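In the previous lecture we treated proteins in isolation. Real proteins rarely work alone, and many bind small molecules. This record shows how such a complex is specified: first the sequence, then the SMILES for flavin mononucleotide.
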Amino acid sequence: MLTSAPVPLVSFTFGVPSPAVIARLRSAGTVVAQTVTSADEARLAADAGVDLLVVQASAAGAHSGTFTPQHVPPSAPIADLLAQVAAAVPVPMIAAGGLATPEDVAATLRQGASAAMVGTVLLLSDESGASATHKAALADPARTQTVVTRAYTGRPARGLRTAFIDRYDAMAPSGYPAVHHLTSPLRSAAAAAGDAERVHLWAGTGWRYASEEPAAAILSRLAA
Ligand SMILES: Cc1cc2nc3c(=O)[nH]c(=O)nc-3n(C[C@H](O)[C@H](O)[C@H](O)COP(=O)(O)O)c2cc1C
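The predicted 3D structure, ligand included, written as tokens:
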């Protein structure tokens, strides 16, 4: 489908597809991006032939793209990660993870990134599909901390700290997507009931900068 009706860009995360898959996409005119969380992962992606690397720091909201989810990725600053990846491979980098202000974005461009990617700062935007429960929690001043946990899905992901994480984090196995499917009905029911303590409240470290306005306004400000 993606080769018979090509799209401009395809991005992969959680692991690198085969070089043959990447070559087929590229020969259809598609730019191929790969999320990486370390220099080792960047080498694997470069060897497989991707065009772009999304260099994701552990400050990022939601799932880590790590290729080894049995280990929680170290919390390296984005600047360090960009330097390590740039030293390892000559592939253009998109910086991601915890970028929430124009200063953050400008710094990553100075540090060698060709572009910056944001997720968390868009979660309260007019276009966001986050649940009302998720949005209310993001705006709740009583929430003071994000943590990385496998409790909800079996793969490390960053979100606002909840009672569910406090109860299950220490015993959560590495088991994505099985754990995701196991907890999904519970999380959906909790979101519908407004019970934020059982919902995956995905958020990166910059969640306080999420604002209720059009996404275009948020992005224009970050790029200024
Ligand atoms: C709610 C949410 C869902 C996400 N879903 C995906 C996804 O499906 N695929 C993907 O490659 N990255 C996904 N991301 C990660 C972003 O692409 C990016 O790495 C991250 O948001 C950057 O960090 P930030 O959230 O601190 O801005 C998601 C992020 C958030 C917050």
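Summary for your notes: The beta strands are 9-12, 31-36, 52-56, 62-63, 93-96, 115-117, 146-149, 157-160. Residues 11, 13, 35, 56, 59-62, 96-99, 117-120, 202, 204, 206 surround flavin mononucleotide (CB under 6 Å).
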